[in-house]
Amino acid sequence: MDVGFIVPILALFTLLAVTILGIKGKFEVERAKADPKDPDSTLAADGPNKR
């Protein structure tokens, strides 16, 4: 195996991994937004530390 074969394979694997992690994160955020028991962010304008 030479570098001309391995580098594109590693690049495609990296892109696939980033895409899968992004999709997984998107679904986790949507699940948290739909859950009324999930606490609000402390950075949110209507969060628990509102002044």
Q: Could you give the topology of this structure?
A:
Layout: H1 3-34
Briefly characterize the structure.
The chain crosses the membrane at residues 6-23. The protein has a domain at 9-35.
Q: How would you describe what is shown here?
A:
The structure is a single chain. The protein is mostly helical. It has a domain at 9-35. The protein is built from 1 helix and no strands. The chain has one helix at residues 3-34. The longest helix has 32 residues, at 3-34. The radius of gyration is 19 Å and the shape is rod-shaped. The protein starts with a helix and ends in a 17-residue tail after the last helix. The model has no long low-confidence stretch (mean pLDDT 87). Residues 32-51 are annotated as: Disordered. Keywords: Membrane, Transmembrane, Transmembrane helix. The chain crosses the membrane at residues 6-23.
